[in-house]
Amino acid sequence: MVVAASAQRGQCGRNVILELRVARLSVRFYANLLRSVRTAMTAAFTLRIDEATLEALDRLAEKTDRSRSWLAARAIEEYIALNAWQMAKTEAGIAAADSGDFADEDDLERVLGKYSAKG
Question: How far is the C-alpha of 108 from the C-alpha of 9, rounded, in Å?
């Protein structure tokens, strides 16, 4: 009876592991399916990167269960968004300067006093 209970427990554990593996494969299948639908609506291009960066990308892809392509696309999207924000701020500053919207001497002294080292 103890042997049978032990065998049942062992079989149950294997079933749970098998079910978890099947569930993970199902999640990956549907994730890949969604990625392929998204990929069908995008353009492809070639990117050259050094070997160390490629290895780091592969490690990150493995750890996050994402593809190289997905990670690279997100990185490029974030880079573009950050630079678009920076360019907009720079252009706004140039436009303000062109219109003569400068800080006067009192404003400048106040800012310098605020951030300079006090002795």
Answer: 76
